[in-house]
Amino acid sequence: MNRTEIQKRLVFHQAALDKLQAAYLALVEGGVQSYSIDDRTLHRFDLPRLMEEIRKEERMVDELTALLGGGGRRRAYAILPRDW
Q1: Which residues, 6+ apart, have CB-to-CB distance to 76 below 8 Å?
Q2: Which residues 6+ apart lie within 8 Å of 36 measured at CB?
Q3: What is the DSSP string of 44-63?
Q4: What are phi and psi of 50, to 5 degrees?
Q5: How far apart are CA 31 and CA 35, in angstroms?
Q6: Number of helices followed by number of strands (H, E) in the chain
Q7: For FRET with 53, which of 26, 35, 38, 77 sits at 20 to 30 Å CA-CA?
């Protein structure tokens, strides 16, 4: 993945994150009972699912920002404790 492609993905995911956050705030503040994002309609009872999507987009934005900054993807390592 080159730098230009990473930047395009970052712009896309940042825009998606902005829309999700706006929907969440509108539903939490109680001014609306439902909120539409493009072709999806969300209701107040969708708040937990909406928060999960926000967290997913935040992780993606953080990961792409790290890639642009020269950092790599996060890696998970397993530690195996041994009793010698």
Answers
A1: none
A2: 42
A3: GGGHHHHHHHHHHHHHHHHH
A4: -65, -40
A5: 10
A6: 2, 2
A7: 77
In this structure, the chain runs to a length of 84
Helix axes 3-29, 47-68, angle to 10 degrees: 150
- 27 vs 73: which has the higher pLDDT: 27
Alpha carbons 20 and 1: distance in angstroms, whole number: 26
The answer, yes or no, to whether residue 64 has pLDDT greater than 80, is: yes
Q: How many CA atoms lie within 13 A of 82 on its CB side?
A: 3
Dist. CA 48–CA 44, nearest whole Å: 9
